[in-house]
Structure formats: structure tokens, C-alpha cells
Amino acid sequence: MQLGEVIRTYRKSKSMTQEEMAYRLGVTASAVNKWEKGNSLPDIMLLAPIARLLNISLDTLLSFQEELTESEINEIVCEVQRQLKEETYDEAFCWAKKRLEQYPNCEQLIWQLAVVLDAHRLFQNIPVNQDYDEYLCSLYVRVQNSEDEVMRSRAADSLFGFYMRREQYDKAEECLKYFPEQNPERKRKQAQLYSETDRLQEAHKVYEELLFSGYQMLSVTLNGMYRLAMRENDMERAHMLAAKQEEVAACFEMGKYYEVSGRLDIATSLRDAGAIVEIAKEMISSVEEIDSFQKSPLYEHMEFKKISEEFKAELKENLLQCFRDEESYGFLKDHKEWQELLL
After folding, report:
1. 30-34, 44-48, 126-130, 329-333 — which is least confidently predicted?
2. Nearest Cα to 82, choosing from 125, 118, 120?
3. For residue 177, what are the CA distances in angstroms to 150, 153, 189, 283?
4. pTM here?
5. What is the set of domains in the chain, with CATH numbers?
6. pLDDT tens-digit readout, 14-58
7. d(CA 128, CA 103)
């Protein structure tokens, strides 16, 4: 709402006439009438008394809205986009600036308008203008300091790109602190920075760390989906997901152990003796190479902790103990190859 609308709305909510309001403020009823119609504005010295009289905050009086509805934000953004197509960039820029002066605390609107104006400059090759740069940068910075983590990350992401395009790498790196430590996007941007500033070894390492953690996340996710399928006795889906796990392990060059181990549960649940024996053989024989991914060219810049021979021996023994479990594998007690495997 405009200032006059706010005054009229809250005056009426208190069942106060224009004359009564004018009397209490020491102005004429005509002045109050002009305010409410938008024909004039109160003197700045009257703003605080008006807010106190109406029992509202100055932010409310001045329509400093913390939030607009999603529909209202979309309407404003669409109007700016229309103006960018049909009018000059400067006209659209000035119109957007006035809207933000009306709603200086609506972080979603601030960020979206900054992105729209910034992107239009980029794609339409609008000449560099320091006034535009400074204003758009100030909008990103304002939202980057938000108390809302989502808005903070969005603004930091936009501001990072803003600085990178201008080769202001120190400022771009400052934006990274607004991303959570474990956010993969923070690491990806760090790698990009290293690459642009010729720190190539560091860039390689960070990208490889992202790749390795990406495998771990994919593997855990597929395993969770696989276990849901098993609980629902959806064997067709379980087979498909186990196959995907195997493909992912192969794609990320994790080694034979990780490729085949996902198939064991299905074979066990189906009591498929032949499949169980083959999978168990492959798992046991591949324990010695369980760290083969450390030698993959995909991770050649990473530093891995060496897997000791003692750990491998312990893992092998644990596998054998698992395979000796009567409840799960007792039905294989007369299977010659199985018994030879457990020796």
C-alpha cells in the first residue's frame, strides 16, 4: 500500500475521523485528506507522531513490508521483464529501483529483480555502467546478509558469479563463507576459483574430492532405494537398483568389491545358491584390491589414508563369518563349492 492508503486504513480501523486526526496532529483536515488521496505527503517530522497515533510502526506506516505474496512478487518481476523487452534498460532499471524503494525489506523481491536486471545486461551486452554495477552489487550484498539461510545462499551464489565475471577473485572467494561447509556447491565454486587463478593442482584435488563424495552419496541413495524395494518385495525394482549400484561403482572406478557386493542381498533373499557362491567368491578375492580406487586416474590428486593389510585381513575374516551364519546361509551346508570357500 502507498503511504496515504496506510494512513486511511489504520485511521478507519480506530474509528477516527480525518478532522479528529488533524486536530491531534496539529494540522488541517484538508492536509489529512490530501495525504490519503496521495496528492501530498506528510512532513517528515510528522511521521513518528502519525505512527504513534495510529499505533503502528514506522515500517508499517511507510509500507516497508517484510514479505510480499509470491503472486505480488511475480507480478513485479514480470513487469520488469516486459519493460526490458519493450523499453530501454535504463527505464526498466529505474522502475525496478522505485519498486524496491517501496519494499526495501522484501529479500525475495530484491534478489529476483537483481538477478533479472543482471542477467539482461549479460545476455544483451548492455555496456558496462558503474552506477548499474554498484547498485546491483549492493542488492546482492543486502540479501547475502540475510538471516534466512536459503536467501543468504542464493544471494551469495549470484554475487559469486557477479565478481567472477569481473575477475574480482578475492571478493568472489569472500562469498564462499556464506555457503555451509559441507555444501558441495561451495567446493565446486572453490575449484572454479582455483582454476581461474592458476592454482591448478588445488583445482584438480577439489574436483576429485567432489567426484569421490558424489559416488558415496549416489551409492548410499541407491542402497536406500534398493532396501525399500526389498521391503516391498518388489524384486524387479530391486534387481534394477542393484544393477545401477554396480554400474555406478564401475563408472567411478571403485573396484570389483564395490561393484558386486550390492547383488548379495538379492541372491540371498532368493536363495540362489549359484549366484551367492559366485558373488561371495568375487567379494573375498577382491578384498586385497579394495583400495584399488586410490590408484584410479580419476583421483590421482587426492591423498587417501592407506588401507592396512591388517584391515584387509580383518575384513576378509568378517566376510567369512558372515557367510558362516546358519540363519542366512545354512541352506548351503551341502554345497561343495560353498564349503570350500569357507575353509
Report:
1. 126-130
2. 120
3. 14, 10, 11, 43
4. 0.74
5. 3-61 (1.10.260.40), 70-198 (1.25.40.10), 202-342 (no CATH)
6. 899 999 999 999 999 999 999 998 888 898 889 999 999 999 888
7. 27
